[in-house]
Hints:
Layout: E1 2-11, E2 14-24, E3 29-33, H1 40-48, E4 55-60, E5 63-64, E6 75-79, H2 90-100, H3 105-118, H4 134-146, E7 152-156, H5 164-179, E8 185-189, H6 192-198, E9 201-206, E10 209-214, H7 216-221, H8 226-231, E11 241-242, E12 248-250, E13 256-265, E14 268-275, E15 278-285, H9 286-289, E16 300-305, E17 311-312
Parallel strand pairs: 3-8, 3-9, 6-7, 7-8
Antiparallel strand pairs: 1-2, 1-4, 4-5, 9-10, 11-17, 12-16, 13-14, 13-16, 14-15
Amino acid sequence: MLELRDLALAFAGRRVLDGLSLQVAAGETVALLGPSGEGKSSLLAVIAGLLRPQRGQVWLGGRDISRLPPEQRQLAMMFQDHALFPHLDAAANVAFGLQERGVPRAAARQRAEAALAAVGLAGRGAAACHQLSGGEQQRVALARALIGEPALFLLDEPFSSLDTHLKQQLIDDLRQRLSAMAVPTLLVTHDRHEAFALADRVAILQHGRLIQVGTPGEVLARPASAWVARFVGFDNVAADHAIPPAAFRLGDGQPLRTVKLVEPRVEGCRVVVAGDGGDWVLSLSARELATQPYPQRGGHLAVGVDRAALLRW
């Protein structure tokens, strides 16, 4: 288990971490989610031993590692920059860490080939870095991170440089591999879709503090504040409540609202109407669109809200 106890960190008087505590169980993936500049990467640096906090402790596997140097913390990190050695082939990149720790070259190479096969790159060990696609390079980086059998796995925005299709493919692949590992994993990201797809729990960070921790379903069902609701993707947020998509009611018997914007999409369309107290944003599915005339800008749409379905905080 990874346990963070009351961590505090400041740069030039600015608090980056402010009494942060969190537990990540063995085999659990927790996503640290928040906008840029909120302290996510600084927290990873503290856990990795690259930064020393002003207060607090980092415990791993039942022991305090707060004062250990990075090389003694038995962890692996994976960044958005794959940081592969361009002059080495795929297997040599994976084997590099083993050889640095004294594993004979032939044995390290054999283990590297097995690690590459485990991430879907069997037979690609001799490929040069420039011969690998972005997704393949990401898998080489994953194999390199996991080959040392770490006690903790840290991921810092690992998919941010990839296109949407490849990102989803790699997230699906990584989720399966993480579920088979009995080590705690901490993912840092500003992408809520990435966090919800990969993590067992999400921990939302604002101004160096965790303001909500829960499963993706719990956070979406009960956001702790208007800020959290907006950050996790709700379009219709007021000071004390959010209108979830399921709360909207369409069709006969509902008030007519002026349509201000129509944005066609593959799965339907996004519509902005003049609602009560401000604009409402609706995402209409193809099935919903089939039951009524297609919305037109300047036209009207019959839509109301089930007040009992509002999310309040």
